[in-house]
Each structure stands twice: as C-alpha cells, then as structure tokens.
Amino acid sequence: SDDSTEKSLLEKDHAYTWHHISAYNEKSPPMIWESAKGAWVTDHEGNRYLDGMSGLWSVNVGYGREEIAQAAYDQMKKLAYVPMTQSHKPAIELAEKINELLDDEYKIFYSNSGSDANEVAFKLARQYHQQNGDPSRYKFISRYRAYHGSSMGALAATGQALRKYKYEPLAPGFLHVAPPDNYRRPEGMTVEDYNRHCAEEIEQKIIWEQLETIAAVIMEPLITGGGILIPHRIYVEKVQEICKRHGVLLIIDEVICGFGRTGKAFGHQHFGIKPDIVTMAKGLTSAYLPLSVTAIRKEIYDRFDTGDDNSHFRHVNTFGGNPAACAVALKNLEIMDEEDLFDRATELGDRLLKELKCLEDHPFVGDVRGFGFLLGIELVADKEKKEPVLNGYMTKIMAECKGNGLLVGRNGDTVAGFNNVLTLCPPLSCTDEDLDFIIAVIKKVINGNTTFSQSEERLDGGQECGENLENWSI
Ligand code: PMP
C-alpha cells in the first residue's frame, strides 16, 4: 500500500479507536496488524515480527491455522447459536475433553473471557457456602501483583493498585497477601522457609478475618502478569492444605498457565494439587474465538444439583459456550495433541531459560526465571539493592527488540514501580529457528545496553515507573 493509505489508516485508528493502557504515543503508534502465520505477525507496511508474547499470552498453537478457521466456518454454517439453557455437541465434547485434561470429575460452565470465568467462580463460591449453611463466608483472598481480570469482581481480586484506584469502589470482600517473590526474599532466608512463610500469611489472614468469613483463595499456579513469580512447590501444597483445613475453596486461575504453557495441560498439575474451581480462557481456543471455562469439582456442584431451581446457579451469559468457539477449542486441543505441544513447551522453555540464564552476568539483569515456555527477565539498576530500572530503560529495550523484529512483553508490580520484568511467552508451535531468533535478539539487545544514565532515561520518554506503563502484555 502507498504512503497515504498507511498514514490515513493510522490517522483513522487514532481518530476512531481507543486502545487500552498505554497513552497514544506518536513516536511509537499502535501497530496495525495485517496477517500472521506461525509465530510471525506482519503489519500493514509488510514488516514482520516474531510475536514473543503470543498476542496476550494466548495464541498457543500459533497463527494462521487453516483447520481452526475451517472448524469455525463449518460450525457457523451448521448451527451458529444455542442459548446456555440448552446444549450442543461441541460444548459436550469439549467439556468431556477438559475433564480428561483435568484428570478428575469437574462440571464445566462456559463464558467468554478470563474475567467472566473468574466472576463465575466468585459467585459460585459464595452460593456454595450459603447452601452449605455458611452464609458468612463471602470474602476472597488473592495476592498482590496478581492479575485476574478487568470487571468489578475480577479487578477487585487483582493485586495491582494502579489498575484499580480510579475505578473504586470495586466489589467488596477482596483481601490480599504478598506472593512469594523468591528473587526479593529476605536475605538469609532459604527459599523453602520463605515459601512456607508466605503460605502461612494466608492462614494468618484467614484467622484474623474471623475464620469462617473466607469463601475462597484465588491464585494462579505462578504469577504471570505480575512479573513471572514462580513459587516453590512447598507454597502451593501448603496453600491447598490451609484451604482444606479451614473449609476455604481453592480457585486456580489457569487463564495464562493452562493448555500447555507450562508443559502440562494445567500449571497446577506440576504441584500435585486438586483445586475446587479452575478458570481458563486464552489458550483454550488459542484466542481464535472468545471462550472461557469455569470448572467446578463434582462435590461442589452436587450442592447445586438438588433438583430445586432455587438452589441452582443463577447466571446468564448470552454468548457463553458459543458453538463455533467450542468447535474451535476442540480443534485447537486436537492440534496440541497431534503436535505434542505440551512436551514441546517444556523443551522450548528449557532451552530458552538455559540460553538466557547467562544474562545474569549483565550489570542490569537481576534475575532470569522461567517455567515451561514462559520467561521473565528482571532488570535492575542496582544489583545489590535490586532497585528496578526506570521506565525509559524498559521502553528502550522493548523498542530495540521490536526494531530487531521481536515483540516482547513487560510486566511487574505497577504499584511499587517494579514494572521491570521483560516477559516472553511465545507460541508453543515455535520452530527451532524461531527460538534461535528470540534468543539472538534478546542477547543482542540486552548486551548492547550496558550503560544507564538517569537523565537519558527521562529524555527517553519515560516518567519514573508509573503512569506511562506501556504494559501491553496484560
Ligand atoms: N486471569 C489472568 C491470569 C489473566 O492473565 C487474564 C488476562 N490477561 C485474565 C484473568 C482476564 O482475562 P480476559 O482478559 O480474557 O478477561
């Protein structure tokens, strides 16, 4: 396309659409994506980029899968819509498949987004306790730095104040505790003791809040959007044990970690726990169509299945379990099976971590950590004090990655200014050459930025971490 069309597309974009989170920046306007295949995205000017974030941590099988498009087309032609009070074959088959992946008996409730799935989980948990004769259990515990969605309940569960404070009051009854952040644990404390201590904080909260007022704990298997914080298994096991002992339900948010991202069907399976409720979205359809799931353990569901409409779950969702979205999810999971993408995630992730771990010798790389095909590089201005780099350094690194053809993410704790973790979450379908490319660009860019000047930082467009987040990877 010629210059004028390009300009007018960008101008029209700025005139008519609104993008989330980042302010419009003339020097770095939004990309206009034109097409994509495998791990590679092409913009409207024909520039190609390897999408190191799989969109928003979601395109697990990669872009441009003809068979997924075909599955959607076939289903739409045959039967485009079914209301949630009724059922259809793709929804039934998908529920069966998810049960197989969960390796236990769960009931599947469909919605359209990760936020929706978490809202359903909260409502179910409250109603469950009411029907169990425990109506005072209405509170939820989640962790600081976690992201659980954008609606009033899911945002209340989110532990990043900067995303919330302009929209308060959010749904009441959400409490937060610190997650384990092994890199920043107190000096002299072992990882094991520290993780035990963090889990005990949840128990303390339950006790201080008057024991029988807590409905559920919600957590991701590892904190993703808050900066790739990977717990020791002691933490996850202990949280489950505490929940069980106090009659508190455990909701595991698998919106990012599910469907192979960590090398297993679900992230929590690495820790041998059995959550009461599991929420999923993103990788379920690899984002080809919107679909999410709240999976509820059979014993919990039984409380709702009394034959009495009044005990049933009163929650309507017009698009939930859309036939085409279910057909797409089935095809997506079939591809993952056929191409062995869960094992491939482990293989790719192990290599990525091994290759990039050596960056810890760099003066500004504090920590390189990964779990499955999910990686975080924490950048610090001072290794001793672990002081985060300023915004300008992060945006410079990200811009240089993009300049070299690699899109990367950026996450962290936006409250404390630790928005300093470079994130990678590439499609599980990456080829060996794609992985080589990612490794080469990251090494080149990070190794090419060994000086750091505060004044340069500010000139480079960034305030100190805060408002100008450029945190597009959530
Ligand atoms: N939970 C987690 C862990 C997420 O990362 C996200 C989205 N990034 C959500 C929930 C919300 O999902 P959605 O944007 O589909 O509402």
UniProtKB/TrEMBL annotation:
Keywords: Aminotransferase, Pyridoxal phosphate, Transferase. It comes from the Bacteria. GO terms for molecular function: transaminase activity. Pfam families: Aminotran_3. Belongs to the class-III pyridoxal-phosphate-dependent aminotransferase family. PANTHER family: AMINOTRANSFERASE, AMINOTRANSFERASE CLASS-III. This is Aspartate aminotransferase family protein. The lineage of its organism: Bacteria, Bacillati, Bacillota, Bacilli, Bacillales.
